[in-house]
Amino acid sequence: MKRIILFISIALCSLSLFAKDEEAVNPQGNTQSGVITKTDDCYVLNGKTMTKDEYLAFIKQNCVVAWESYQKGQRLWKAGWGLLGAGIGTSIIGITLMCVGDNQYVASPGANPAAEGMFLGGALTLGLGAGMMAGSIPCLIVGGIKRNNSHEVYNEVNGLDETAVTFGIRPAQNGLAVVMNF
To answer: Does residue 97 contact residue 120 with C-beta atoms inside 8 Å?
Structure first.
């Protein structure tokens, strides 16, 4: 029993060795440090609210990794919207070609071989447009996530946690209890 109590007490004392020091040196050499949190379109650093433009200027100056994550997300976001727009346009052209080819074929079946080719070309163009629209969905999702979560990249790079985990011993009903707050 003494060995178990000794082991538990050594384990509890050694927890402080593995805990992160909140006042550790900032590895990026930032002029300001602290956890950045996001609420709607506002960012909060040390109680100071920043607009999106102020936040972008802050991470551009203070955290290259977070800035690159935001830029990558912005590029994916724009590519997703570009693919969506091009896919819609290509699909409209494909539907138009299919309609024109079908109308020409119905008007004089077999007389105009170009009508069948126009219908087939329209179907292929419509398929290409649908593929472009489907490909835009992951670009929009991933781009939006990277843009919106760049503050989390900043917190990770700088070794900051949004929630601090603390260990301790508190009195309980039957004696002492080990407590972990997070």
So the answer is: no
| Domain range for 105 | 33-181
pLDDT of residue 127: 95
Residues of the chain with pLDDT under 70: 1-33, 105-111, 160-166, 181-182
Q: In what order do the strands lie in the sheet with 48-50?
A: 36-39, 42-45, 48-50
Domain count along the chain: 1
Write down the pLDDT at residue 154.
87
pLDDT of residue 7: 60
Q: Is residue 81 part of a domain?
A: yes
Structure tokens at 74: 């912005």
Does residue 52 lie within any of the structural domains?
A: yes
72-76 long-range Cβ contacts below 8 angstroms, 24+ apart = 72/143, 72/146, 73/142, 73/143, 73/144, 73/145, 73/146, 73/147, 73/148, 73/150, 74/143, 74/147, 75/143, 76/139, 76/140, 76/142, 76/143, 76/146
Whether this model's pTM surpasses 0.70:
no
Instruction: Name the pairing type of β-strands 176-181 and 166-171.
Output: antiparallel
